[in-house]
């Protein structure tokens, strides 16, 4: 695992965006795995300046809440539209359908669609305070594929800032599984935000355990972790 510490959020965003552009440049078909949360917002803002680079690119998002309408301001579909998809013409954008009648079938369909696309070339990840990646909470099996999860109290609290109150935060989500994420050819884990210094310490120096999902990344052959020193140190 390669670790890069950058001074601040702006540098993290520029670094991530440049890696993404490098990945899609010179290919007529690339597959990107995208993340939500506050961390990639600056990266997406940067990418909005280069709409013409993404015409042949297919994207798969990591996760979606269950029970929110697609058009709800807090759905990840709306988030991605506002941050990126409304501004950059991709070939195809995919997000799990958190309102599917048969959620299990939706998980299978999403997995198959990733496989049929040829697999993810570059997956962007954020880091949850409790070590979650996507919405794979602590104690999720490292062998998991796209599945339905019960969101932990810590995660609901962390994400409550976007909702009217914690009672409005959904209790379930669909997420790519840990195994699904690990099949990506390259992974870029972006770490920014107050309160993440313990998670960073555990990621870099802790042992590999299902209790801390991001620890699996040590077993991937091509992972770069980018840490925003200023925000992680809480300055
Ligand atoms: C959510 C998302 C994760 C994201 C995490 C961290 O729970 N499902 O994919 O990495 O939040 O979010 P933030 O970047 O806002 O700290």
UniProtKB/TrEMBL annotation:
Presence of the UniProt keyword Signal in the record: no
Gene3D superfamilies reported in the protein's UniProt record: 3.40.50.1360
Gene Ontology MF annotations: glucosamine-6-phosphate deaminase activity
Pfam families assigned to the protein according to its UniProt record, in alphabetical order: Glucosamine_iso
Purpose of the protein: Catalyzes the reversible isomerization-deamination of glucosamine 6-phosphate (GlcN6P) to form fructose 6-phosphate (Fru6P) and ammonium ion.
UniProt key word Hydrolase: yes
Domain Glucosamine/galactosamine-6-phosphate isomerase intervals: 10-220
Cited PANTHER family: GLUCOSAMINE-6-PHOSPHATE ISOMERASE (PTHR11280:SF5)
Pathway, per record: Amino-sugar metabolism; N-acetylneuraminate degradation; D-fructose 6-phosphate from N-acetylneuraminate: step 5/5
Record-linked SUPFAM superfamilies: NagB/RpiA/CoA transferase-like
Reactions catalysed according to its record: alpha-D-glucosamine 6-phosphate + H2O = beta-D-fructose 6-phosphate + NH4(+)
Family: Belongs to the glucosamine/galactosamine-6-phosphate isomerase family. NagB subfamily.
Protein name as annotated: Glucosamine-6-phosphate deaminase
Keywords: Carbohydrate metabolism, Hydrolase
Residues at the catalytic site: 63, 130, 132, 137
Species lineage: Bacteria, Bacillati, Bacillota, Bacilli, Bacillales
EC number: 3.5.99.6
